[in-house]
Amino acid sequence: MLEIVIVIVLGRKLAEMAQERGHGRGWAALVLLWFVGEFLGAFVGALAVGDGIALYACALLGAALGGAASYLIVSNLSPQPGSLLGDNPADEMYGHADRNNPYSPSGFGQPSDPGNPYSPDFKDK
Questions:
Q1: Buried b (16+ CB within 10 A) or exposed e, 65-77
Q2: Helix (H) or strand (E) holding 18
Q3: How far apart are CA 3 and CA 82, in angstroms?
Q4: Cα–Cα dist 3/125, whole Å
Q5: Helix H segments across 21-106?
Q6: Is the model's pLDDT at 103 over the cut of 80?
Q7: How confident is the model at residue 63 (pLDDT cuts 50, 70, 90)?
């Protein structure tokens, strides 16, 4: 039961990450790597240890590796032009902002104006 919840949460997270990068939500299909990893882990476990709890542990290890692989694939997708992520993943919130526009959010090389009460750097004395 817990495995089903993890697969659903992972699929939603993969779709969200792909959409942030400007790709389609279909990348969530990589959650199938979870099941591929689980079957391969069970197969290797059956060959290595036979039956029992060790077989199930090998299947779960394979599932975790498949899920991690799908997460790594989607997290390394390059952002498409116009996506929510910019060139620098550290500025996810304002990745779509124009760095050369003086009206863009602060932190893109524009001088801050500490005397402007609408500036985020304003300090009331």
A1: bbbeebbeebeeb
A2: helix 2-20
A3: 35
A4: 55
A5: 32-48, 53-75
A6: no
A7: very high
Tokens of 40: 């391969």
Q: Check residue 82 and give left, alpha or beta (phi > 0: left; psi -120 to 50: alpha).
A: left
As a whole number of angstroms, the distance between CA 91 and CA 22 comes to 16
**What pLDDT shows up at residue 62?**
95
User: Exposure of 107 by Cβ count < 10 A (0-12 exposed, 13-18 middle, 19+ buried)?
Assistant: middle
Per domain, the residue ranges of the chain are: 2-77
What dihedral angle (degrees, nearest 10) is formed by the CA atoms of 48, 51, 53, 59?
60
Cα–Cα distance between 110 and 14 in angstroms, integer?
34
